[in-house]
Design brief:
The chain has 10 helices and no strands. The protein has 210 residues and is an all-alpha fold. It folds into 2 domains: 80 residues, Rna Polymerase Sigma Factor, Chain: A; 96 residues, Winged helix-like DNA-binding domain superfamily/Winged helix DNA-binding domain (Arc Repressor Mutant, subunit A). Helix 3 packs across helix 5 and helix 6 crosses helix 7. The N and C termini lie far apart (68 Å).
Length: 210
């Protein structure tokens, strides 16, 4: 009988483990060498994270899917230009960010109502910073819809950095590099964005507490 380590099932497990543990750099190298399925592994690794952030940033699952798909296509086409000076996801997200700006300009969707925001996004937008999250008098689903609606009303520059900070948990310098603005501007936009979002939520909630 062959040793367990040499059995077909053991070999399959080892092969599967090597795929799971491959780094982004290794997958990119394999893709550039012609094994295009390696890029599919990158897509599987990051599509949920990217889509979740884009849904909150754009306020629409449909738009987020379009932008995410476009970003992955562009990333594949531009893969040779990736120099590894940043994380692959950061590079991918920068592409998605540019695509989302172009997409927004093309769409120019009207502001959503609370019900429309819930129906169109479908996703469960993450609660943001506790200072700006409504926590009293509103059910969880309603609260999520209100946050989504408030984000849709927020200035794009503020919404962008706020989502990167609160959802992606990026540091100020990482956001500055990604968005190509000074760190001081990032801090200012996040501070003003939180204040603006809180004001919008207060307007939406009326006499209810935030």
């Amino acid at each position: 009988m062959a040793p367990p380590g040499n059995s077909p099932s053991a070999s399959f497990v080892l092969d599967l483990a090597s795929i799971v543990t491959q780094t982004d750099t290794e997958l990119i190298a394999e893709c550039l060498q012609g094994r295009t399925e390696a890029f599919g592994t990158l897509v599987s690794r990051y599509q949920d994270r990217l889509l979740g952030t884009l849904v909150t940033m754009l306020g629409s699952v449909e738009d987020a899917r379009d932008v995410a798909q476009e970003a992955f296509v562009q990333a594949y086409q531009k893969l040779e230009s990736f120099r590894g000076q940043s994380q692959f996801y950061s590079w991918l997200f920068r592409i998605a960010l540019n695509s989302s700006v172009d997409h927004h300009r093309r769409q120019r969707r009207p502001t959503l109502s609370i019900d429309a925001a819930r129906e169109q996004t479908g996703a469960e937008p993450a609660d943001l910073h506790p200072e700006i999250s409504p926590t009293f008098g509103v059910e969880r689903t309603e609260r999520q819809a209100l946050v989504q609606l408030a984000l849709s009303k927020l200035s794009p520059d503020y919404r962008q950095v706020l989502v990167l900070k609160e959802m992606e948990d990026l540091k100020y310098d990482e956001i500055a590099e990604l968005v190509k603005i000074p760190v001081g501007t990032v801090r200012s936009r996040i501070h003003r964005g939180r204040a603006e979002l809180k004001a919008i939520l207060e307007e939406l909630l009326g006499d209810q507490e935030i």
